[in-house]
């Protein structure tokens, strides 16, 4: 909407994309990993030098939001405190595109299930309680943010993508405090 653009276009601030400020990526990852750990009441994950260097080479087309979502994902899914290249989601790895079949789906569709199971087992081993109350809202937050990002903020399209009704999506956005 053009009127909204003019309403918001009071002061222009040019912020370069994340792939033009790769020196900021390690600091942003530390911040997002610490924030996610605090929200989930878990220990802060630490990236190995190899993983850190690799992540700084990525394009990050979703910019800071994509980086934040990655940090939330890795906080839940990585089984150990130290994050290695093998812990990264397959879509961020260089050979991921080569392993995608002609149907457009990864050959190993259960990688996320294995990672989720490891994360849950780690929570149990640490004696954490109410695991579902922590993991389910985080999972819904990641789902909703990803759908909104994919649909460029169009809630109706995001709701359809997720299989939610529009009102259900709106309620979940409020409950989960998603911006």
Characterise the protein shown here.
The chain has 179 residues and is mainly α. It is built from nine helices and two strands. It has a two-stranded parallel sheet. Helix 8 crosses helix 9 (166-175). The longest helix is centred in the C-terminal third of the chain and has 20 residues, at 131-150. The model is unreliable at 96-109 (pLDDT under 50).
List keywords for this structure.
single chain, 179 residues, mainly alpha, Helicase, Ruva Protein, domain 3, Arc Repressor Mutant, subunit A, 2 domains, two-stranded parallel sheet, 2 strands, globular
H/E element sequence: HHEHHEHHHHH
Give the total of beta strands.
Answer: 2
Unreliable residue stretches:
96-109
Q: How much strand?
A: under 5%
CATH topology name of the largest domain, in short, is Helicase, Ruva Protein, domain 3
Strand line-up in the sheet with most strands: 1-2
Shape: globular
Protein structure class: mainly alpha
Q: What is the CATH level 1 assignment of the largest domain?
A: Mainly Alpha
Using the 3D structure, state the CATH architecture of the largest domain. Orthogonal Bundle
Major sheet description: 2 strands, parallel
Calculate Rg over CA atoms. 18 Å
What's the end-to-end separation, in Å? 20 Å
The helicity comes to 55-70%
Mean pLDDT: 84
Per DSSP, the total helix count is 9
The total number of structural domains is 2
